[in-house]
Specification:
Elements lengths: L6 H5 L20 H16 L2 E6 L5 H10 L6 E6 L5 H12 L8 H17 L4 E6 L7 H11 L10 E6 L2 H6 L5 H6 E7 L4 H14 L9 H11 L3 H17 L7 H13 L1
Parallel strand pairs: 1-4, 1-5, 2-3, 3-4
Bound molecules: adenosine-5'-triphosphate and magnesium ion.
Adenosine-5'-triphosphate binds next to helix 3 and helix 11.
């Protein structure tokens, strides 16, 4: 089924509504930082390492993760994705056991042994690598961080039985550096901080999103794009919202493209509401 087109988007002759969440992996904007984050996540997966990927909200962390795992052969990799760590320690074991086809044990001590055994069997017997991803990992409690260390440590210092990827806001990296978490911190061999885009990247990003919706010619004037970029601090999600508001303002005024007046109006509205 073709994606629906909002009225304001059809005003510009766009074939789909731009700046949505639903960008297929093959059509992502390949800025350097995104490519680097994807490369590090892939390295972490290949090496069965522990990785920490941080960045401000809306920087593109989850998108990079999606891109990194999109091409994985699911007969050789099991990706276990926890959208957030709100289920406590048990939530992590339950996710592992369930994803690997077992019934999670009820008692905590049994559950951790079960998870560790399942991870080891998957790696060594089925030769299938488990990729355990915990998103919003800045919300992990100290107990959960300790459990993750124990799981990654289950085979003494020999190879880790899985690839672990913690994704979160910059406070995650700060927390991990606190002394109490040093044992886990030392095991993290892949780190990346995904920053916002510079002006040139933001302009290309805006054009990219419009091009995948059918308009390759510049629809947003450079001064307007600069204003949207500064408002969004170069962060993709905030830029999506600002660009959408600016396109709506231009459509409401019957303008063929987004000029700086539209960008100003859009930002005034976004900061007011
Ligand atoms: N490389 C990219 N190409 C195209 N769009 C992107 C890209 N990176 C981010 N985006 C856009 O930005 C939005 C926000 O990205 P994402 O959800 O990955 O942010 P996040 O860093 O995970 O934020 P949060 O911390 O709030 O979870 C996406 O829904 C997508 O529309
Ligand atoms: Mg995210």
């Amino acid at each position: 089924m073709a994606a629906p087109v909002d009225l304001w988007a059809s005003h510009f002759g766009l074939s789909a509504t731009p700046f949505t969440k639903a960008v297929p992996a093959a059509k992502l904007f390949e800025r350097d930082a995104h490519a680097e984050a994807v490369a590090r996540i892939r390295y972490c997966i290949n090496e069965a390492a522990l990785a920490v990927i941080v960045g401000d909200t809306g920087a593109g962390k989850t998108v990079a993760l999606r891109a990194a795992v999109a091409g994985l052969d699911r007969t050789r990799y099991s990706v276990i994705y926890l959208a957030n760590p709100s289920g406590g320690c048990r939530g992590i074991y339950v996710a592992i056991a369930t994803a690997l086809g077992a019934t999670p044990r009820f008692h905590k001590a049994e559950a951790i042994n079960q998870a560790a055994a399942l991870l080891a069997a998957e790696e060594h017997e089925r030769h299938r690598r488990v990729v355990l991803v915990i998103d919003e990992a800045h919300l992990l409690t100290p107990e959960q961080l300790e459990e993750i260390r124990l799981l990654s440590n289950a085979e003494l210092d020999s190879a880790s039985p899985f690839a672990g990827i913690l994704i979160g806001q910059p406070t995650l990296a700060v927390r991990l550096r606190q002394g109490v978490f040093s044992a886990l911190d030392q095991r993290i061999s892949v780190r990346y901080s995904l920053v916002g885009m510079d002006l040139a990247e933001s302009i290309s990003y805006l054009r990219h999103h419009l091009a995948i919706c059918g308009r390759s010619d510049p629809l947003i004037a450079d001064d307007a794009a600069g204003r949207l970029h500064r408002y969004a601090n170069g962060l993709p999600r905030a830029l999506n919202n600002a660009a959408t508001a600016a396109l709506m303002a231009a459509a409401a005024d019957g303008k063929p493209l987004v000029d700086d007046v539209c960008a100003k109006k859009a930002i005034a509205e976004l900061t007011r509401t």
